[in-house]
Design brief:
five-stranded mixed sheet; 7 helices; elongated
Amino acid sequence: MKIVVYGAGVMAQYVKDSIISSNNEFVGFVDPLGNGDFKKLSGENIDYDAIIDFSHFTLIDDVLEAAVSKNVPVVIATTGHTPEQLKKIEDASKKIPLIKATNTSLGVTVLNEIVAYATKLLSDFDIEIVEKHHNRKIDAPSGTANTLLEVVEKNLDGDYRVVYGREGESKRQPKEIGVHSIRGGNIVGEHTVIYAKNDEIIEIKHEALSRKMFSDGAVKAILYLKDKPAGSYEMKDVLGINK
């Protein structure tokens, strides 16, 4: 499979290595600033079978245009898309197979499933989500933490209030979900969901030791999409969790 990588940053380099180690062909990097092999994809005569996007959400139009015009699958691993951009992604999924993932780690995919099950069983526990990343990360909470929050909320009955960080002199209220972000050093990524009640605490945690797990997962995802009909797929489809 001939795979082009949208983006030319650190993650894009990992994706290149994962493509090559999986015995597929790396076509090149795409970067509008000129740091890659190509400045854009749409309208260009470039031979590729698939796109993996690890760039920036503002570049999604070129990614989708190119994928639809070439009729190739795409894995979108960027976050922060506007409602209008999400609608474009949805429209594109009617024409090509695609995966939009806040986290392409296979372990995090399993983490989401475990958290869904645990939340149903521990709905009367206090639930807190803690995520840690390096000091260069711009967004907070992380996209993965937001996905975990969605998983928790989906598996709770009734309305819950989300509290981002804590300060002041008020105690924790019932039906709250706490979300906390920590930034420091070179932490690759760590996500923990805490369930606490009375005299017991249960923690479900995933820690990334290298960014390679994200690139390996993205390549596994794009290979899964090969020959699939148009549609919007998820990382758990890649692992066969939906079967």
